[in-house]
Structures are given as structure tokens and as C-alpha cells.
Amino acid sequence: MESSSYSPNEYNLLPDHPGVYKYFNAAGELIYVGKAKSLKKRVSSYFNKNTGVNHKTRRMVREIERIEITLVNSEFDALLLENNLIKKSQPKYNILLRDDKTYPYLLVTKEPFPRIFQTRKVIPGRGIYYGPFASVKAMNNVLDLIRSLFTIRTCKLDLSPYKIQEGKYKVCLEFHIGNCQGPCVGLQKESDYLKDLDQAKHILKGNLGLPKAYFKQEMQKFAENLEFEKAQRAKEKLDLLEKYQAKSLVANPNIHNHDVCTLVVDEKYAYVNYMRVKNGALIVSKNVELKKKLDETDEELLLTALIRLQDQFQSDAEEVLVPFEIENPIDGLNLVNPKIGDKKKLIELSLKNARFYKQEKALLQGLNKDKKDRVIRQLQDDLSLPEIPDHIECFDNSNIQGTSPVASMVCFLNGKPAVKEYRHFHIKTVKGANDFASMKEIVGRRYKRLLEEGKNLPKLIVIDGGKGQLSAAVEALQELGIYGKMPIIGIAKRLEEIYFPGDMYPIHIDKKSESLRLLQRIRDEAHRFAITFHRKVRSKNAFGTQLTAIPGIGESTANKLLKHFKSVKKIKEASEEELVEVIGKSRAKELLEWMEKNKGSD
């Protein structure tokens, strides 16, 4: 499929044909992907409509610098391509499906006497994958059923014919308790093993009818041959299958292969329930949350979720049951809105799940908010603070024997990390390992800048360290004339003691207290952030020193390289042409020769 490009004022030149359109901004970033039955009509609507368009859509249209289209054969193909592009690029104006889980699969391996086991990694060529399963419990139920019905091996032995003939293996406990027939020592033919495996595959596909017919036939055959014990075992397995099917049954068994997709919406989100039903049994039930971006209709939200979930769960459904009539039906997608009967009951069941999911989300958000409020209020009480500490800043130093001294400041708003507000500091005025002087410098620099910019000061300052570091930070605040305007404490690591300026004795918060855990989390985050930065700076400085040791490369050239490429890794990955552009041909040659010679000594 080839793509064509247009400028925004050329939208009238687009073809009246099904396809996918992509909007790019001035920086060349993909900001939106859409599908259309007619590209010309759909794209034109963005630029021609003056009323009924929300502010988010207007903002997106203002950003469009280039339009790229891809023609396809049908609107259904466009829907599939749109889904793949959104999954791959995640443009900022497209609907987001909130679901970051990795789902489990059952893998039937490609080897002699194949095994069946669970995995979360899909590696092509390793075998046949069944799933994904929406829950581990559902997957384990299927696996337990298969292992109860068939003697599928669980060992990892290489059962190639020549390995078995060499007599390298012995039967294990699984053989003695009847869970395996001993293929490792030649007691079971591979052809017999594969017959059982074929029936297990039918169960994995959700087709229980064929395994039931298989065990019924086996039961009758053994009974005719007067092998009553074997006939009884076959009957027990048939009963087990029927019991499993009865538990899974949610609808008429004549509902063979259907998907069900419903949703409930509020101002910002859509809560979707997706179900797969085979032979009346529910084999998948999945809830997802969609965040609205451009005031999408319920139909657009439903189709977006449906296509992504069908792709994720590898659906081959003949028909999809939906909760309302689709105004713009899509050829190739059989969408039905049932009014009565068993199919209508499936819609009601799915809607019940979607509503419960919405309530659950709202409750969870409320609990999380209550917990955050409770923790910071508890911290206010424990430290006797004048205000709720909904804005906390914490400082930490990092140096090893005085080398590459740096520091960090992390910020927590309403008990949560505000990563965009984190800051790194190079220590500028202190020589050697002097934690107290370094702390005074960075605290002074931080709040001098906030005062100059007229920004809000925090409700609590936390210093990672004991009395010495706390006193240094207090000096910085006194010199700025803001000491006393906000509380400041020090937290010492060893005994988790909290120090206040001027107090001889520390206070101790209950070790099980949520407020202490919050302080520990903030302190640990500042330490992590400082250590990470210190390692980066130390690595950069070490490489810079190595560079100046190369003949023909001095400090000025080393600085040029580091300034241009930003990191050691990028210098090492740079091509000869890129290096020549920055430092000239002769120096680039010397650098490349040196890096090649020292490749193994990183």
C-alpha cells in the first residue's frame, strides 16, 4: 500500500475512495489517524465545518501541516489499518485504550510429543498460541481440564526418536501417578499422543462438541469390546467435559460463534465490555476504559474498542452483538442489535458488566483520592504543620570521594510524584566532598530562582540527612530571607529520625505509619534521582578524560563532541560522516581508530 501526501489546503484534491488519513504537525509528528469510506468527504469535514466542532478538534486542525493518505479496498480494511497504525504510533489526538497488561497464552509447542504450557511472550515459529486469556484463572481452568482428560507430558526432555532409542531417559513420578504414558522410554506411540493432542486443541479453540463426541465414541467402543474399566474412564471424562461446559454456559448452545460489545459513557471516558461466546459458553470477558479525545460519538468509541479487542483476542466471530443500531454500517463487519431472545440477554449481561466496571473505577478513584488526602493530613498532624503539605520538595547530594558532585530535588504534589518538576544540580561553588556546603548551595539556588520567577514555595522542605545537612539548608533560607515561611525537616536514614531546626532531639513517627512511608518514598526517590544523574555525569567525565588522552584531541574537541552528541553512547554510535562534521576529518579518523582499538574495554 502506497501513501500520498497533501498540504492542508489541498484537501479538495483527495480521492472519493475508502482509506486511512494521517495528520502530521510542523515537527513531522503523527498527531491523528482516521479511517473513511470517502477520504475526500471525511477530511474536508475537518476544514469546512464552522459550527458544532469542539475546541480540541479546532486545536488539532490548527496543528496540521501535512496530510498523508493510504487507499484500501473497503471501509473494513481501513478500520483494520487504522487500528494497526494507532497501536503502533499512539497519536496524541486518537482515543486511548487504557490497558497495559500482558495477557497469558497457552502454547502448543512445535517439537516431537508437543507440550502445552502457559507463556506471556509470543515468539513466532515456536508453536501454536491459543489466547490471549483475559485472566490467569480462566486459562488455568482450561489447562487443568486438558490435563484431567489427556496424558499430555509436562517435562522439557528432547523426545527426538534417536534420543528415545538411545535409552537416555527414565520414567518420572508423572508416569507412576498416571499423568503420562511414558513416551520418553518408548511406551507411547507419537501417533496415539497426537490424537489426544488434537482433541486438546479443539478445547483450546472453545469447540467442546468434538471432544465430547470423541469420548462418547471411545466409551461405546470399549463397552462393545467388554473393556468396562476403560469404558468407565471414558464416561468419567465425558462427564467432566459436560460439567465444564455447563459451568461456562451463559446462553443457548445454538449461539455458536459471537462477539458481544457494549459500553457506558460519561463526559471523559467510555467503559467497554467485550465478550466472546462459543456454543453458548463465555470464553472471554474483558473490560477496558477509553479516554475521549475529540468528542467522539458512542458509535466511534464502540467501533474503536471492538476492532482493537477483536485483534487482541484473535476473534473469528461470525456476528457481533451491539447495544444500539449502527448508523454507518461497515461492509465486512456483521453488527447486529438484537431486540429479543437469548442474544438480547447477552447484551444485557454485557451492559451489566460495563456499568459495574464504571462504578468500580469511580469507587477506586474516590478511594485513591481519600487515601492521598488522608496520608498528607496524617503527615500534617504527625509533624504539627500549619498547612496541609500538598507540595513537598526533597533534596539529596551525590558524590563519591568528591568526584563529580551533583544533587537532586524531587517534588511531590498531593502525595504523588510530579516528575516534570524534578531538578538536577551540578555543584558549582564547592570543591571536594563537602555535603553541608553542597546542600546550602543547591537549596539557595532553588529558592532564589523560585523567588525571582514569582513561583509558589513548597509547604514542606525535606532534607535527606541529619542535623548537619539541615543546618546548611536553613542557612541558605536565612540568607534569602524566607526562613520560617515554610517548614523544613531533615530525615536521617539509619533510624528514620525526623529533625527540626533548633531542636536537640529528633521525633520518631510510628514505623507502620502511612505518613512515614510517604516521607521514606520521597527521600528514596530523591536519592535514586541523584544517583542516576551522578552515574551519568561520572561516565561522561570519564569518557571526556579518555578523549583528551587521544593524540590530536584536546579538551576543546572533547567538549565539542560531548556538547553535540549529548552522551557517550551516541558518540560511540556516530558515523564517520557525523564525526567529521563536528571535529574534522583527521581528528574523526584518530577517534574512530582509538574507539575500534578500545572496543572491548568499555
Question: If you had to describe this structure to a student in words, what would you say it looks like?
Answer:
The structure is a single chain. This protein has 18 helices and 20 strands. It is of the alpha+beta class. It has five domains: 3-89, GIY-YIG endonuclease (3-Layer(aba) Sandwich); 105-248, no CATH class; 257-359, Alpha-Beta Plaits (2-Layer Sandwich); 391-536, Nucleotidyltransferase, domain 5, CATH 3.30.420; 549-601, DNA polymerase, domain 1, CATH 1.10.150. The strands form four sheets. Strands 14, 15, 16, 17, 18, 19 and 20 form a seven-stranded mixed beta sheet that branches. Strands 5-11-10-9-12-13 form a six-stranded mixed beta sheet, with helices on both faces. Strand 6 (105-109) and strand 7 (116-119) form a beta hairpin. The chain starts with a strand and ends in a 5-residue tail after the last helix.
